[in-house]
Amino acid sequence: MIKRTLKKFLSLPVNSDETWQGGIIPMADVLGIPPAKDADEMAMVLWRSKASELVHAKPILLAGESRLNGMVEVMLDLCMENDFPFRPVQIECNDRGLADGLSNLLRDSGRP
């Protein structure tokens, strides 16, 4: 399903005024509690549209899927659930490894 939704996302026109910011935050940080062994497997994925200031969040179990897949899934949810008729010109991420993975995944998607 992610591949089909990603293909639809990549077919959308690019909005040169839009930037999305995303990241994965450990659930212990979200809840403000000391990290526990089980909590290491839980995290919150957040995406934010800078232009609209809309924030989309979803908890994920890191043991059940890759961090990159979780990031992409929630990014696609942000777009599809809010009926954005475009995709952002720029995507920013709070983690260098995830940023590189997103860059590789979206490498040939084109820019305006």
What about the largest sheet? Answer: 4 strands, mixed
Shape: globular
What is the share of helical residues? 25-40%
The share of residues in extended strands comes to 25-35%
How do the strands of the widest beta sheet line up side by side? Answer: 3-2-1-4
Number-wise, the strands total 4
Alpha plus pi helix count: 4
Explain this structure to me?
Helix 1 crosses helix 3. By secondary structure, the protein is of the alpha+beta class. Strands 3-2-1-4 form a four-stranded mixed beta sheet. It has one domain (2-106). The two termini are 27 Å apart. Strand 2 and strand 3 form a beta hairpin. It has helices at 2-11, 27-31, 67-81, 96-106, and strands at 14-26, 42-49, 55-61, 87-93.
Topology:
Elements: H1 2-11, E1 14-26, H2 27-31, E2 42-49, E3 55-61, H3 67-81, E4 87-93, H4 96-106
Parallel strand pairs: 1-4
Antiparallel strand pairs: 1-2, 2-3
Helix pairs in contact: 1-3
Keywords:
single chain; 112 residues; alpha+beta; four-stranded mixed β-sheet; 37% helix
Compact summary:
This protein is of the alpha+beta class and about 110 residues long. It has one domain. Helices cover about 35% and strands about 30% of the residues.
